[in-house]
Specification:
disordered N terminus, mainly alpha, 7 helices
Length: about 190
């Protein structure tokens, strides 16, 4: 059980019925940083705390009697405060969920299906691109063979120029910490 759940279930008032005193979320008050991971963790902790409060509320309602009215009101107030806190924390999070994922969830399907479909689509597009690249390489090779038969001196000059140009690009890339494909070294 994590600290937010143990704090929610420990309770400080009213005895053994698990009542809690409303209090502000300490993680939100102590750290208001702009770190996205920290903001997300705060929202996750608030969701867990809300789930704990909902469970406590369920237990109170399921065994409701006249004496449990005050704990019920305290738990309702705690739930409202935590939902308000969660809303404020969520404003700091910039998470964009594709509509397709939400539609899958609404349809009762696993959102991992979206990830699988995106990956399969990327693989298919990658294979198409690789096929095109291979076709151009084959065309280039065939074109050079034909040109070499017709214009051997010009093709030899072309290859020398290409080799010198490639060597110069490689030297510049090493000097500027740039990879041969144009990416920066990290």
């Amino acid at each position: 059980m994590d600290p937010s759940q143990s704090a929610a279930t420990a309770g400080t008032g009213g005895g053994g019925n698990g009542t809690i005193n409303p209090q502000a979320n300490d993680t939100a008050a102590t750290t208001a940083g702009d770190d996205p991971k920290q903001n997300l963790n705060q929202v996750i902790n608030s969701i867990q705390k809300t789930l704990g409060l909902l469970h406590q509320l369920y237990l109170t309602v399921s065994s409701f009697n006249g004496a449990s009215q005050l704990p019920l009101l305290q738990r309702l107030n705690s739930l409202v405060m935590e939902l308000d806190n969660m809303d404020k924390l969520a404003e700091k999070c910039n998470i964009q969920v594709p509509m397709e994922v939400l539609n899958l969830i609404d349809d009762g399907k696993n959102p991992d299906e979206f990830t699988r479909d995106v990956i399969n689509s990327c693989i298919a597009k990658n294979q198409i691109t690789k096929g095109k690249t291979d076709a151009f390489k084959g065309f280039r090779r065939h074109l050079l063979e034909e040109l070499e038969q017709t214009f051997p001196d010009e093709v030899e000059s072309y290859r020398e120029i290409r080799a010198a140009s490639a060597a110069e690009l490689k030297r510049l890339a090493q000097a500027q910490s740039i990879l041969p494909n144009g990416d920066m070294k990290g």
